[in-house]
Amino acid sequence: MVAWPFYLFTYGNSNLRHVSALSGAAATPGKTVLFAGTDQRSEDGINDGVEGQRSDSIMLVHVPESGNPSLISLPRDTYVSIPGYGNAKLNTAYSVGGPELLVATVEGLSGLTVDHYVEVGMDGISSLVDSVGGVELCLDYDVNDPMSGLVWEAGCHDSDGVQALAFTRMRYSDPLGDIGRTARQRQVIGQVMDKAISPATLFNPFRQRELVRSATTVLTVDTETDLLDLARIALPMRTIMGPNGIVGTPPIIDLNYQPGGVGSTVLLNPETVDEFFRKVADGSITQADVAANLL
Protein backbone atom coordinates (compact mmCIF):
# COMPACT_ATOMS: atom_id res chain seq x y z
CA MET A 1 0.00 0.00 0.00
CA VAL A 2 2.88 2.38 0.79
CA ALA A 3 5.07 1.31 -2.12
CA TRP A 4 2.71 2.50 -4.87
CA PRO A 5 2.25 6.10 -3.60
CA PHE A 6 6.02 6.30 -3.01
CA TYR A 7 6.65 5.10 -6.56
CA LEU A 8 4.23 7.68 -8.00
CA PHE A 9 5.88 10.45 -5.95
CA THR A 10 9.40 9.45 -7.03
CA TYR A 11 8.35 8.94 -10.64
CA GLY A 12 6.53 12.27 -10.78
CA ASN A 13 9.36 14.22 -9.20
CA SER A 14 11.81 12.79 -11.72
CA ASN A 15 9.71 14.26 -14.55
CA LEU A 16 9.27 17.75 -13.09
CA ARG A 17 11.32 20.49 -14.68
CA HIS A 18 12.62 23.30 -12.50
CA VAL A 19 13.45 26.91 -13.30
CA SER A 20 14.62 29.91 -11.32
CA ALA A 21 11.48 31.98 -10.75
CA LEU A 22 11.01 33.28 -7.20
CA SER A 23 12.08 36.82 -6.34
CA GLY A 24 13.27 36.24 -2.79
CA ALA A 25 11.02 39.06 -1.57
CA ALA A 26 9.85 39.00 2.04
CA ALA A 27 6.98 36.57 2.52
CA THR A 28 3.42 37.85 2.80
CA PRO A 29 0.78 36.07 4.92
CA GLY A 30 -0.86 32.98 3.44
CA LYS A 31 0.29 31.07 0.36
CA THR A 32 0.42 32.50 -3.14
CA VAL A 33 0.87 30.50 -6.34
CA LEU A 34 1.42 31.98 -9.79
CA PHE A 35 0.26 29.79 -12.68
CA ALA A 36 1.49 30.65 -16.17
CA GLY A 37 0.18 28.85 -19.24
CA THR A 38 2.83 29.14 -21.94
CA ASP A 39 2.53 28.28 -25.59
CA GLN A 40 5.32 27.69 -28.09
CA ARG A 41 3.81 27.92 -31.55
CA SER A 42 5.06 25.60 -34.26
CA GLU A 43 4.27 24.93 -37.92
CA ASP A 44 2.59 21.62 -37.11
CA GLY A 45 0.65 22.92 -34.11
CA ILE A 46 -2.55 24.93 -33.79
CA ASN A 47 -1.73 28.44 -34.96
CA ASP A 48 -3.61 31.36 -33.45
CA GLY A 49 -1.52 34.02 -35.16
CA VAL A 50 0.99 34.67 -32.38
CA GLU A 51 4.65 33.79 -32.92
CA GLY A 52 7.13 32.60 -30.31
CA GLN A 53 6.59 31.76 -26.68
CA ARG A 54 4.18 33.79 -24.55
CA SER A 55 2.54 33.56 -21.16
CA ASP A 56 -0.95 33.24 -22.61
CA SER A 57 -2.71 32.43 -19.34
CA ILE A 58 -1.71 34.02 -16.03
CA MET A 59 -3.56 33.09 -12.85
CA LEU A 60 -2.80 34.10 -9.27
CA VAL A 61 -4.05 31.73 -6.57
CA HIS A 62 -3.98 32.97 -2.99
CA VAL A 63 -4.84 30.94 0.12
CA PRO A 64 -5.03 33.36 3.08
CA GLU A 65 -4.38 32.42 6.70
CA SER A 66 -8.13 32.79 7.22
CA GLY A 67 -11.04 33.68 5.00
CA ASN A 68 -11.68 32.92 1.33
CA PRO A 69 -9.07 31.48 -1.05
CA SER A 70 -9.31 32.88 -4.56
CA LEU A 71 -8.13 32.48 -8.13
CA ILE A 72 -7.57 35.74 -9.98
CA SER A 73 -7.05 35.62 -13.73
CA LEU A 74 -4.74 38.36 -14.92
CA PRO A 75 -5.41 39.15 -18.61
CA ARG A 76 -2.20 38.73 -20.56
CA ASP A 77 -2.69 42.20 -22.11
CA THR A 78 -3.05 43.95 -18.74
CA TYR A 79 -1.24 47.29 -18.80
CA VAL A 80 1.34 47.08 -16.00
CA SER A 81 4.66 48.42 -14.84
CA ILE A 82 7.44 45.92 -15.63
CA PRO A 83 10.59 46.38 -13.51
CA GLY A 84 13.38 47.70 -15.71
CA TYR A 85 11.17 48.01 -18.80
CA GLY A 86 8.47 50.56 -17.97
CA ASN A 87 4.79 50.15 -18.81
CA ALA A 88 3.75 47.37 -21.17
CA LYS A 89 1.47 44.35 -21.50
CA LEU A 90 1.79 41.82 -18.69
CA ASN A 91 2.87 38.95 -20.94
CA THR A 92 5.76 41.09 -22.17
CA ALA A 93 7.40 40.42 -18.80
CA TYR A 94 7.66 36.71 -19.61
CA SER A 95 8.77 37.37 -23.19
CA VAL A 96 11.70 39.59 -22.20
CA GLY A 97 12.61 38.25 -18.76
CA GLY A 98 11.13 34.79 -18.33
CA PRO A 99 9.52 33.50 -15.14
CA GLU A 100 11.58 35.70 -12.79
CA LEU A 101 10.44 38.95 -14.39
CA LEU A 102 6.85 37.72 -14.66
CA VAL A 103 6.85 36.90 -10.94
CA ALA A 104 8.36 40.27 -10.03
CA THR A 105 5.79 42.09 -12.18
CA VAL A 106 2.83 40.24 -10.66
CA GLU A 107 4.20 40.86 -7.16
CA GLY A 108 4.41 44.57 -7.92
CA LEU A 109 0.85 44.58 -9.20
CA SER A 110 -0.73 42.53 -6.41
CA GLY A 111 1.43 43.26 -3.37
CA LEU A 112 1.61 39.49 -2.76
CA THR A 113 4.87 37.56 -2.64
CA VAL A 114 4.73 34.46 -4.86
CA ASP A 115 5.58 31.28 -2.92
CA HIS A 116 5.27 28.81 -5.80
CA TYR A 117 5.54 29.23 -9.56
CA VAL A 118 3.87 26.65 -11.81
CA GLU A 119 4.24 26.88 -15.57
CA VAL A 120 1.96 24.77 -17.74
CA GLY A 121 2.93 24.01 -21.32
CA MET A 122 -0.35 24.47 -23.18
CA ASP A 123 0.69 21.91 -25.81
CA GLY A 124 0.55 19.35 -22.99
CA ILE A 125 -3.13 20.05 -22.26
CA SER A 126 -4.05 17.49 -24.92
CA SER A 127 -2.24 14.59 -23.25
CA LEU A 128 -3.40 15.69 -19.80
CA VAL A 129 -7.06 15.63 -20.85
CA ASP A 130 -6.62 12.26 -22.55
CA SER A 131 -4.96 10.85 -19.41
CA VAL A 132 -8.23 11.31 -17.48
CA GLY A 133 -10.36 9.89 -20.28
CA GLY A 134 -11.56 13.21 -21.73
CA VAL A 135 -13.67 15.97 -20.18
CA GLU A 136 -17.07 17.59 -20.70
CA LEU A 137 -16.80 21.21 -21.82
CA CYS A 138 -19.53 23.79 -22.32
CA LEU A 139 -19.81 26.86 -24.53
CA ASP A 140 -23.11 28.57 -25.31
CA TYR A 141 -22.44 29.66 -28.90
CA ASP A 142 -21.33 28.08 -32.18
CA VAL A 143 -17.68 28.41 -33.20
CA ASN A 144 -15.80 27.72 -36.42
CA ASP A 145 -12.42 29.26 -35.73
CA PRO A 146 -9.62 28.38 -38.21
CA MET A 147 -6.96 30.10 -36.09
CA SER A 148 -7.35 27.71 -33.16
CA GLY A 149 -8.96 24.81 -35.01
CA LEU A 150 -12.04 24.86 -32.77
CA VAL A 151 -15.32 23.79 -34.37
CA TRP A 152 -18.09 23.85 -31.78
CA GLU A 153 -21.87 23.54 -31.68
CA ALA A 154 -23.42 25.50 -28.81
CA GLY A 155 -23.88 23.36 -25.72
CA CYS A 156 -21.89 20.83 -23.69
CA HIS A 157 -19.85 18.08 -25.31
CA ASP A 158 -17.45 15.32 -24.29
CA SER A 159 -14.06 16.46 -25.56
CA ASP A 160 -10.78 14.67 -26.15
CA GLY A 161 -7.37 16.25 -25.76
CA VAL A 162 -7.15 17.75 -29.24
CA GLN A 163 -10.51 19.49 -28.95
CA ALA A 164 -9.78 20.64 -25.38
CA LEU A 165 -6.53 22.21 -26.58
CA ALA A 166 -8.35 24.11 -29.32
CA PHE A 167 -10.98 25.11 -26.73
CA THR A 168 -8.27 26.68 -24.53
CA ARG A 169 -6.56 28.47 -27.42
CA MET A 170 -9.56 30.00 -29.20
CA ARG A 171 -9.56 33.77 -28.85
CA TYR A 172 -10.46 35.56 -32.07
CA SER A 173 -13.98 34.11 -32.24
CA ASP A 174 -14.72 34.89 -28.61
CA PRO A 175 -16.75 38.10 -28.05
CA LEU A 176 -14.65 38.77 -24.95
CA GLY A 177 -11.32 37.90 -26.55
CA ASP A 178 -8.64 37.02 -24.03
CA ILE A 179 -11.06 37.43 -21.10
CA GLY A 180 -13.30 34.73 -22.53
CA ARG A 181 -10.33 32.50 -23.25
CA THR A 182 -9.11 32.62 -19.65
CA ALA A 183 -12.58 31.58 -18.49
CA ARG A 184 -12.48 28.58 -20.84
CA GLN A 185 -8.98 27.68 -19.67
CA ARG A 186 -10.24 27.67 -16.08
CA GLN A 187 -13.11 25.42 -17.17
CA VAL A 188 -10.69 22.87 -18.65
CA ILE A 189 -8.53 22.93 -15.51
CA GLY A 190 -11.57 22.43 -13.29
CA GLN A 191 -12.85 19.52 -15.37
CA VAL A 192 -9.45 17.80 -15.39
CA MET A 193 -9.25 18.15 -11.60
CA ASP A 194 -12.74 16.66 -11.19
CA LYS A 195 -11.83 13.68 -13.36
CA ALA A 196 -8.49 13.27 -11.57
CA ILE A 197 -10.24 12.64 -8.23
CA SER A 198 -13.03 10.51 -9.67
CA PRO A 199 -13.23 6.77 -8.80
CA ALA A 200 -12.30 5.97 -12.41
CA THR A 201 -8.88 7.48 -11.74
CA LEU A 202 -8.40 6.92 -8.00
CA PHE A 203 -8.96 3.15 -8.29
CA ASN A 204 -7.11 2.63 -11.56
CA PRO A 205 -3.32 2.46 -11.06
CA PHE A 206 -2.65 2.61 -14.79
CA ARG A 207 -4.65 5.82 -15.13
CA GLN A 208 -2.97 7.19 -11.98
CA ARG A 209 0.45 6.65 -13.49
CA GLU A 210 -0.58 8.16 -16.82
CA LEU A 211 -2.04 11.20 -15.05
CA VAL A 212 1.14 11.72 -13.02
CA ARG A 213 3.25 11.28 -16.16
CA SER A 214 1.13 13.70 -18.22
CA ALA A 215 0.90 16.31 -15.45
CA THR A 216 4.55 16.37 -14.49
CA THR A 217 5.89 16.34 -18.05
CA VAL A 218 3.89 19.47 -18.95
CA LEU A 219 4.78 21.35 -15.75
CA THR A 220 7.77 23.53 -14.96
CA VAL A 221 8.07 24.72 -11.36
CA ASP A 222 10.37 26.91 -9.32
CA THR A 223 13.45 25.27 -7.82
CA GLU A 224 11.87 24.91 -4.36
CA THR A 225 8.64 23.18 -5.45
CA ASP A 226 8.18 19.41 -5.68
CA LEU A 227 5.31 16.99 -6.30
CA LEU A 228 4.20 17.12 -2.66
CA ASP A 229 3.88 20.91 -2.89
CA LEU A 230 1.76 20.48 -6.03
CA ALA A 231 -0.53 18.09 -4.15
CA ARG A 232 -0.92 20.65 -1.36
CA ILE A 233 -1.74 23.30 -3.96
CA ALA A 234 -4.39 21.05 -5.50
CA LEU A 235 -6.38 20.74 -2.26
CA PRO A 236 -7.60 24.37 -2.01
CA MET A 237 -7.96 24.46 -5.80
CA ARG A 238 -10.88 22.03 -5.51
CA THR A 239 -12.71 24.55 -3.32
CA ILE A 240 -11.76 27.54 -5.46
CA MET A 241 -12.89 25.88 -8.69
CA GLY A 242 -16.17 24.69 -7.12
CA PRO A 243 -19.55 26.42 -7.40
CA ASN A 244 -18.90 28.63 -4.37
CA GLY A 245 -15.31 29.46 -5.25
CA ILE A 246 -13.94 32.98 -5.70
CA VAL A 247 -12.80 33.15 -9.32
CA GLY A 248 -12.54 36.19 -11.56
CA THR A 249 -10.47 39.14 -12.68
CA PRO A 250 -9.26 42.36 -11.06
CA PRO A 251 -11.43 45.45 -11.68
CA ILE A 252 -11.24 46.40 -15.37
CA ILE A 253 -12.29 49.77 -16.78
CA ASP A 254 -11.17 49.42 -20.41
CA LEU A 255 -10.67 46.32 -22.58
CA ASN A 256 -9.18 48.37 -25.41
CA TYR A 257 -6.92 50.92 -23.74
CA GLN A 258 -4.37 52.21 -26.25
CA PRO A 259 -1.64 54.20 -24.49
CA GLY A 260 0.58 54.26 -27.56
CA GLY A 261 3.50 52.07 -28.51
CA VAL A 262 2.11 48.81 -27.12
CA GLY A 263 -1.17 48.40 -29.00
CA SER A 264 -4.48 47.50 -27.39
CA THR A 265 -4.25 46.69 -23.68
CA VAL A 266 -6.51 45.90 -20.73
CA LEU A 267 -6.62 48.73 -18.21
CA LEU A 268 -7.31 47.96 -14.56
CA ASN A 269 -9.17 50.49 -12.45
CA PRO A 270 -6.42 52.48 -10.65
CA GLU A 271 -8.89 53.68 -8.01
CA THR A 272 -9.99 50.21 -6.85
CA VAL A 273 -7.31 47.68 -7.84
CA ASP A 274 -5.21 48.12 -4.68
CA GLU A 275 -8.23 47.60 -2.43
CA PHE A 276 -9.20 44.56 -4.52
CA PHE A 277 -5.84 42.88 -3.94
CA ARG A 278 -5.95 43.83 -0.25
CA LYS A 279 -9.16 41.81 0.00
CA VAL A 280 -7.51 38.93 -1.85
CA ALA A 281 -4.61 39.04 0.59
CA ASP A 282 -6.67 39.00 3.80
CA GLY A 283 -9.34 36.59 2.56
CA SER A 284 -12.22 39.08 2.66
CA ILE A 285 -12.69 38.82 -1.12
CA THR A 286 -16.18 37.62 -2.13
CA GLN A 287 -17.92 36.43 -5.29
CA ALA A 288 -19.56 39.84 -5.51
CA ASP A 289 -16.13 41.49 -5.62
CA VAL A 290 -15.12 39.53 -8.73
CA ALA A 291 -18.56 39.38 -10.40
CA ALA A 292 -18.69 43.16 -10.79
CA ASN A 293 -15.31 43.45 -12.49
CA LEU A 294 -15.95 42.31 -16.05
CA LEU A 295 -17.29 45.02 -18.34
Description:
By secondary structure, the chain is of the alpha+beta class. It has a single domain, classed as 3-Layer(aba) Sandwich (Aminopeptidase). 39% of the residues lie in helices and 25% in strands. It is built from 10 helices and 15 strands. The protein has helices spanning 3-15, 90-110, 125-131, 161-169, 178-196, 199-202, 205-217, 227-240, 273-282, 287-291; strands spanning 17-19, 31-40, 53-63, 70-73, 79-82, 86-89, 116-121, 135-139, 143-145, 150-152, 155-159, 219-222, 246-248, 252-257, 265-268. Strands 1-12-7-2-3-4-13 form a 7-stranded mixed sheet, sandwiched between helices. Strand 9 (143-145) and strand 10 (150-152) form a beta hairpin. Helix 1 (3-15) packs parallel to helix 7, helix 3 (125-131) crosses helix 4 and helix 4 packs antiparallel against helix 5 (178-196). The protein is globular, with a radius of gyration of 18 Å. The termini are far apart. Mean pLDDT is 86; it is low at 41-52.
Characterize the largest beta sheet: strand count, sense, and whether it forms a barrel. Answer: 7 strands, mixed
Please name the CATH topology: Aminopeptidase
Strand content: 25-35%
Give me the Rg, rounded.
18 Å
* Secondary structural class: alpha+beta
CATH superfamily: LCP protein
Shape: globular
Strand element count:
15
Strand order of the largest sheet: 1-12-7-2-3-4-13
Alpha carbon gap, first and last residue = 52 Å
Q: Which regions are unreliable across 5 or more consecutive residues at pLDDT < 50?
A: 41-52
Number of domain units: 1
What is the CATH first-level class name? Answer: Alpha Beta
What is the helix fraction of residues, given as a range? 25-40%
- CATH architecture label name: 3-Layer(aba) Sandwich
Mean of the pLDDT scores? 86
Separate helix tally: 10
Order of helices and strands: HEEEEEEHEHEEEEHHHHEHEEEHH
Family: Belongs to the LytR/CpsA/Psr (LCP) family.
InterPro entries: LytR/CpsA/Psr_CW_biosynth (IPR050922), LytR_CpsA_psr (IPR004474)
Domain Cell envelope-related transcriptional attenuator: 54-197
Protein name: LCP family protein
